[in-house]
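Field guide to reading this record: the first block holds the primary sequence, the second block holds the structure written as discrete tokens, and the final block holds curator observations. Each block starts with its own label. This record concerns HsrA_3 protein, catalogued under organism Weissella cibaria.

BLOCK 1 — SEQUENCE
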Amino acid sequence: MLLQTVFGWSAARAGWYVIFIFIGNIGIKPFTNPIIRRLGFRGALIASFLMLILSSFGLALVRPHTTAIAIMFLALVSGVGRSLAFTSYNGLQFTDVAPIHRNGANTLTAVTQSLGQGLGISLITVIIHIFRHGMTLQGAYAWGFVVLGIFAIVPMIEVMLLPKNAGEAAIN
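BLOCK 2 — STRUCTURE
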């Protein structure tokens, strides 16, 4: 939305930049299992949250004159971080769930992930709206990205508190 509502870009032009989120999402998939085996679930999650935090803060600095490569790179890193986080969480959360309970656990996970995404989008929309009353729309979006990055710090801290070998049985 930033690219269209603030920068005035067409949907087609904005799409050429946003597609890099999905290139990151899909492009990292063949490497997620090797990354998780190498770093463990905890390490992979920390790496993914660092990517999400840094790309959110970087996107807060994007302006209409920012180079295409920089915007595409930030979108790519955001996609990679998100994909690695989802894969890591989805693998880790079921390691201690008995096979007989996995169907129900999977349903609960799908619902809570959808709910979390919806709440996150709603919250950032409210934050942008609140900031919009005291600054430009571009400034409000920038603060939206900053808040998003700050919110990503909380689960990263929780992950850092996990044992280093969390989910190890599922990896080996």
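BLOCK 3 — OBSERVATIONS
The helical segments are 2-6, 11-27, 29-60, 68-92, 102-132, 137-160, 168-171.
Residues 2-92+107-171 form a domain with the Growth Hormone; Chain: A; fold (CATH 1.20.1250.20).
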